[in-house]
TrEMBL record:
The lineage of its organism: Bacteria, Pseudomonadati, Bacteroidota, Chitinophagia, Chitinophagales. One of its GO terms (molecular function) is metal ion binding. This is Aconitate hydratase A. The keyword Transit peptide applies. It comes from the Bacteria. Residues 34-477 form the Aconitase/3-isopropylmalate dehydratase large subunit alpha/beta/alpha domain. PROSITE patterns: ACONITASE_1, ACONITASE_2. One of its GO terms (cellular component) is cytosol. Belongs to the aconitase/IPM isomerase family.
Length: 755
């Protein structure tokens, strides 16, 4: 599982000089986030006093992690890059494709059979290109990363939004799309807008029923789901150092739920203890040697209001357990207020299922505290009222909690243990009766609780809480049960009170594991071939996109003029389409099927200009492609907002769309389009959107002189013989124009490695 101690030592060796240079340049003390960011500037990036929330900066992350659903396209692209090996340490984790139904073993076997082709592909690509491969059942990406790879002061990217979990070990860890992962694995710089900084000062100490989860549930209530956008959240103060490393991981994990770029904590004893407990004494020693660079400068924490854009203070000694939900993770209700809040909102209060675990909350500490409550069921003559499930985050945790008797205790209260995988957290929960869509309540210790997220039932009211509180509420079977004040009636009719949870931060006998589920890559992968069946439904090797033909683009058809919101979900839907994420042609059958056609206000219903008939968007575009006719998509404001999935850019490119012309772009989607060799254009005058007519044929002029900062012209030839010439802007720099000319950024990378 080699955690790259040499790489980490190299990062630490370079850190003091880089931090000092940045401190000098800015002329002030630095926050921890700034230190890590400055220490990871790409070698091509000059050191400047970057403007927060404005300047795009190139970074060199230390490592890449990918989960199986997103790794497929990332690795298919990487295979095109022509590199013999990944440029930075990288791992693949098989966790998203396992359905939780019966229990771990059976569910895992079923998933392995059903997704064998995808797993075999990921294993062989990993083997060939030097990528560590974590098999199905090994654990959830973020827990495995925390246990094995995260390190204080490091920077990583991962193809999953909860990559931010590694902030618990003092990293800057950021979720990205597969195209970004591909770039970094190919040795290219990675671009990020210099973030704003939010400081969270934690005073006091958690006690009683309050858990680290309650910190982030409280922060989510304060900042809302958008409040962290474009910002790094830095936690500090005695409350932070009083908390376990895995507790810090939980807090950082749910930073994704407030839209934060990432969250992090300064290096402290809890991190050192965790590194040592997970077999990384050498890294703890290396971190100790540079520890002044692994926290903010003392002046920052003395006067935080001077250095952070926003400051929040939470006294952990007074923090109450929270329940957030339903349907959004920022609707925070302290447990003492749940009775009145549930009644006022008509929320169903009978708890049907309590679910603990997931990447967010399955540390040894979490499980040991939950088990201290489960034990009381027998001790106090109680009966657990709700169903109860456990989803361990890794085989190491599962094996250790089994050895320590925790699973036996859970078994005694009728709990089900699911596979070490995402399962119910990502809708991969085959919950009996969910199809009836009955109104019901569940409580879980995961991170997200949007409608349908856990079991596909839009009427499941999901509330997020700490594993301790979830366990107590499952025992009580009642959402309004406040274990701090309320009693339960046991089987003998006596009123009993649950004792507050207690547990161990780390296993006193150490972690243990038999087979962690790791497959190291071949030292020399050059002889390994990656097999993908040409008849596969789920995987398809990519062909390079063709280079620009060297002329202006003429005679394009208007494919769709999209009206209003057009997110990456409208462009490339998720849900049932997830299984085609490794097959570009098959997933292209969802291209723009959620976009609203301006002319008839319908989705997936547009005019085929060749036949005059209305039909689905992908079929219409395929008809144009079959005739060798290109097309253009017109859109509204913030086109492509939402996720960073590159499928939303690759699908139109694959089907022959040549340009996307919109009022404005979401930044990541605009970059993704450029990377795939598409023209991403914006109206110089937004009112020109109104000039476009349903039967237009379109020319894009000025491409032979495509230059940064110089607008292009687009001619719309209308059916009645008239035309409009529209000026369009673009944000291509020299390098991005080269991507366009070559057909895609990857084509340039490949040429580089071939030459
Ligand atoms: Fe994402 Fe949930 Fe899996 Fe964590 S457990 S990686 S949040 S799906």
């Amino acid at each position: 599982m080699a955690f790259d101690v040499d790489m980490i030592k190299k990062v630490y060796a370079a850190m003091p000089a880089k931090v000092e240079a940045a401190r000098k340049k800015l002329g002030r003390p630095l926050t921890l986030a700034e230190k890590i960011l400055f220490a990871h500037l790409h070698e091509d990036q000059s050191l400047e006093n970057f403007e927060r929330a404005k300047t795009y900066v190139n970074f060199a992350p230390d490592r890449v992690a990918m989960q199986d659903a997103t790794a497929q396209m990332a690795l298919l692209q990487f295979m095109q890059a022509g590199r013999p090996k990944v440029a930075v340490p990288s791992t693949v984790h098989c966790d998203h494709l396992i359905v939780a139904k019966t229990e771990a073993k059976q569910d895992l076997e079923k998933a392995v059979n059903e997704s064998r082709e995808v797993y075999d592909f990921l294993a062989s690509v990993s083997n060939k290109y030097g990528i560590g491969f974590w098999k199905p059942g090994a654990g959830i990406i973020h827990q495995v990363v925390l246990e094995n790879y995260a390190f204080p002061g490091g920077m990583m990217i991962g193809t999953d939004s909860h990559t931010v979990n590694a902030g618990g070990l003092g990293m800057i860890a950021i979720g990205v799309g597969g195209a970004d992962a591909c770039d970094v694995m190919a040795g290219l710089p990675w671009e990020l807008k210099w973030p704003k900084l939010i400081g969270v000062k934690l005073t006091g100490k958690l006690n009683g029923w309050a858990a680290p989860k309650d910190v982030i549930l409280k922060v989510a209530g304060i900042l809302t789901v958008k409040g962290g956008t474009g910002a790094i959240v830095e936690y500090f103060g005695e409350g932070a150092t009083n908390m376990s490393c895995t507790g810090k991981g939980t807090i950082c994990n749910m930073g994704a739920e407030i839209g934060a770029t990432t969250s992090t904590f300064g290096y402290d004893d809890s991190m050192s203890r965790y590194l040592k407990a997970t077999g990384r004494e050498e890294i703890a020693a290396a971190a100790d040697a540079v520890k002044e660079h692994l926290t903010a400068d003392a002046e920052v924490y003395a006067e935080p209001e001077k250095y952070f854009d926003q400051l929040i203070e939470i006294n952990l000694s007074e923090l109450e357990p929270h329940l957030n939900g339903p349907f959004t993770p920022d609707l925070a209700t302290p447990i003492s207020k749940m009775k009145e809040t549930a009644a006022a909102n008509g929320w169903p209060t009978k708890v049907e299922v309590g679910l603990i675990g997931s990447c967010t909350n399955s540390s040894y500490e979490d499980i040991s505290r939950a088990v201290s409550l489960a034990k009381q069921v027998n001790e106090k003559g109680l009966k657990t009222k709700a169903e109860f499930t456990i989803t361990p985050g890794s085989e190491q945790v599962r094996f250790t909690i089994e050895r320590d008797g925790f699973l036996d205790t859970f078994d005694q209260i009728g709990a089900k243990v699911f596979a070490n995988a995402c399962g119910p957290c990502i809708g991969m929960w085959d919950r009996m009766g969910a199809e009836k869509q009955e109104k019901n309540t569940i409580v879980h210790s995961f991170n997200r609780n949007f409608a349908k997220r856990a079991d596909g039932n839009p009427n499941t009211y999901a509330f997020v809480a700490s594993p301790e509180l979830v366990t107590a509420l499952a025992i009580a079977g009642d959402l309004t049960f406040n274990p701090i004040t309320d009693t339960l009636i046991n089987e003998k009719g006596e009123a009993v009170k649950l004792d507050p949870p207690s547990g161990d931060e780390l296993p006193t006998r150490g972690f243990a594991v038999d087979d962690p589920g790791f497959q190291a890559p071949a030292a020399d992968g050059s002889g390994i071939s990656v097999e993908v069946s040409p008849t596969s439904n789920r995987l398809q090797l990519l062909d390079p996109f063709p280079a620009w033909e060297g002329t202006d683009l003429k005679g394009l058809k208007l494919l769709i003029k999209a009206k209003g919101k057009c997110t990456t979900d409208h462009i490339s839907m998720a849900g049932p389409w997830l299984k085609f994420r490794g097959h570009l042609d098959n997933i292209s059958n969802n291209m723009l099927i959620g976009a609203v056609n301006f002319y008839n206000e319908k989705t997936d219903n547009i005019k085929n200009q060749l036949t005059g008939q209305y039909g689905p968007v992908p079929a219409t575009q395929r008809a144009y492609k079959a005739q060798g006719i290109g097309s253009i998509v017109v859109g509204d404001e913030n086109y492509g907002e939402g996720s960073s999935r590159e499928h939303a850019a690759m699908e139109p490119r694959h089907l022959g769309v040549r340009a996307i012309l919109v009022k404005s772009f979401a930044r990541i989607h605009e970059t993704n389009l450029k990377k795939q060799g598409m023209l991403a254009l914006t109206f110089a005058n937004k009112d020109d959107y109104d000039k476009i007519q349903e039967d237009d044929t379109v020319d894009i002029l000025g491409l032979t002189d495509f230059t940064p900062g110089r607008p292009l012209a687009v001619v719309f030839h209308h059916k009645d013989g008239s035309s409009d010439i529209v000026t369009v802007n673009h944000t291509y720099n020299e390098q991005q124009i080269e991507w366009f000319k070559a057909g895609a950024a990857l084509n340039i990378i490949r040429q580089k490695f071939e030459s």
